[in-house]
Design a protein that fits this description.
Elements lengths: L2 H7 L4 E6 L10 H10 L6 E4 L4 E7 L5 E7 L4 H12 L2 E7 L5 H13 L4 E5 L20 H12 L2 E2 L3 E2 L6 E6 L10 H14 L3 E6 L3 H13 L6 E5 L7 H9 L5 H9 L4 H19 L3 E5 L5 H11 L2
Parallel strand pairs: 1-2, 1-12, 2-5, 5-6, 6-9, 9-10, 10-11, 11-12
Antiparallel strand pairs: 3-4, 7-8
Length: 316
């Protein structure tokens, strides 16, 4: 079922979750299944699975020489989506990236997802590569998420690369948004304009980047609605669990942390887990009061604190 259909049918706000595939070479998918089985009592309607492009690293050989290797640190997104959906009956949302993938590879991935009955994707530009990938003459690329959304929209019409036509693919397409502005956008006005372009290209709903100040999300939603964006907007929430994250999260995700949260963490670092959980619980409460259709948790395969929050609202 499409994510948008789940939202339409819901009689109360939903919670959704995002997990990452196991590290390359891990022996089992059991850790992923363990997370899902902990979520099952709370009736998750869909689960996102991240995608990771290949990256460059240098591996030292026994003789001290270095070998240049390019590989995916976390492969297996399509297989994990298929396993989730067919083992548990929970809709999977596969992340699909521009960076690191040609349009031809994207088309193949979407066809595989369609074979598996996976109807939902999240179309993303993705992080910049740490190497210069050479694109073959016969290949083409999606430079931005709007281009990827456009490719998906054409496939939904049965129009494929090379001016070929096949059976239409039926996908529900989500896109990312940035309440605090994408770091590559010159200003908030362009940030909103790029989002409008993705919606016009065929995106069906929005999931935001994590944020820790709800007022920024509320202002962002108002700006979207004033600009004529009417699709569902789902807030993304991350539960902080360590003092180290006050440095890593802003650096990696280009977000601000409120002064009050940082002060509390620095003042009482040994209590970081509880502080992070309490902050997220307050955020979720305010978001639900605001009327969001769903709260999306960036689990990163760390489920315990999120479960405490879900239990809190399921018991009300």
């Amino acid at each position: 079922m499409f994510v948008t259909k789940h939202l339409e049918d819901a009689t109360k706000p939903l919670f959704s979750y995002e997990i990452v595939p196991p590290l390359r070479g891990s022996s089992s998918i059991g850790n992923v299944f363990s997370i899902i089985e902990q979520l099952l009592p709370y009736d998750p309607k869909w689960i996102n699975v991240t995608t990771h492009a290949s990256s460059l690293l240098y591996v030292e050989k026994g003789d001290g020489s270095l070998v240049r290797r390019i590989h995916k640190k976390r492969p297996g997104t399509i297989g994990i989506c298929g396993a989730i959906q067919n083992k548990y009956g929970i809709d999977a949302v596969a992340h699909v990236l521009c960076q690191g993938f040609s349009q031809q590879e994207t088309e193949d991935a979407l066809i595989e997802l369609n074979y598996l009955g996976i109807d939902n994707i999240l179309a993303l530009k993705g992080d910049n590569l740490n190497y210069n990938r050479v694109i073959a003459e016969y290949e083409s690329v999606n430079k931005h998420a709007v281009d990827l959304v456009g490719q998906v929209a054409l496939m939904k019409q049965g129009k494929f690369l090379g001016n070929t036509e096949y059976s239409p693919m039926h996908f529900c397409t989500g896109v990312a948004a940035y309440p605090e502005k994408h770091f590559e956008a010159a200003n908030m006005e362009l940030n909103l304009e790029y989002l409008k372009q993705k919606i016009a290209a065929g995106a069906d709903y929005i999931v935001t980047q994590m944020f820790f100040d709800n007022q920024k999300f509320f202002a962002f939603v108002k700006a979207c609605r004033d600009a004529g964006i009417t699709v569902p907007i789902i807030p993304g929430i991350k539960v902080i669990k360590s003092v180290a994250q006050i440095n890593s999260l802003p650096r990696l995700f280009h977000i601000d942390l409120p002064h009050e949260l940082v002060t509390r963490l620095l003042t009482n670092p040994d209590n970081a887990v509880n502080i992070g959980k309490e902050w997220a619980m307050q955020q979720v409460g305010e978001l639900l009061d605001f009327g969001v259709p769903c709260v999306h948790f960036f689990l990163m395969n760390d489920v315990d604190n999120v479960l405490d929050i879900i239990r809190n609202y399921n018991n009300k």
